[in-house]
Amino acid sequence: MTERIINHPVLGALTQKEKVTFTYDDHLFEGYKGESLAAALLAQGIRTLRLHEETGQPRGIYCNIGHCFECRVNVNGLEGGRACLTPLSDGMAVKSGQTLPTTVRDWRKNDEQ
Ligand code: FES
Q1: Ligand 1 mutation pick, 47, 48, 49, 62, max ligand atoms within 8 A of CB
Q2: Is residue 98 in a domain?
Q3: Does 97 or 104 have the greater pLDDT score?
Q4: How far, in Å, from the CA of 110 to the mean position of ligand 1?
């Protein structure tokens, strides 16, 4: 499944762009070199990019301009990459952000015991 604008009156035809492959949570996908990782994932119908650190609620693209940090993913082993600012390249290995403990949360758990 892909959800893309194939012919844009200003940006041109999508077929002019170079196709690349990447993985997201070990599933193989195809995208276009240089498009944002967020756009490539959205085109595949993927909207949940991570889970909130404390509540576990699904999070995804919010501002799409690099301000909110809601789109944090693991890119080639590095945590905290913003999908909306990361250009897609061939062979990129992306993992969704998982729920991480916070220092506040750990402190409360220890205090209750
Ligand atoms: S969606 Fe806001 S920083 Fe990426």
Answers
A1: 62
A2: no
A3: 97
A4: 33
What is the pairing mode between strands 19-24 and 92-96?
Answer: parallel
Q: What is the value of pTM for the model shown?
A: 0.80
Could you report the per-residue pLDDT of 41-99, keeping only the tens digit for each?
A: 999 999 999 988 878 899 999 999 999 999 999 999 998 899 999 999 999 999 998 76
- Report how many domains make up the chain: 1
Quick check: is 83 in a domain?
yes
CATH code of the domain containing 38: 3.10.20.440
What is the structure's pLDDT at 113?
47
User: Ligand 1, from 65, 75, 86, 94: best to mutate by most atoms within 8 Å of Cβ?
Assistant: 65
3 is a domain residue: no
Q: Which amino acid is at 73?
A: V
Q: Provide the token pair at 92.
A: 């990129």
Q: Ligand 1 center to residue 72 CA distance, Å?
A: 8
Helix/strand/coil percentages in the chain, nearest 5: 20, 35, 50
Radius of gyration (Cα) for the chain, nearest Å? Answer: 17
Q: Which atom of ligand 1 is nearest to the CA of 69?
A: 3
On whether residue 52 sits in a domain, the answer given is yes
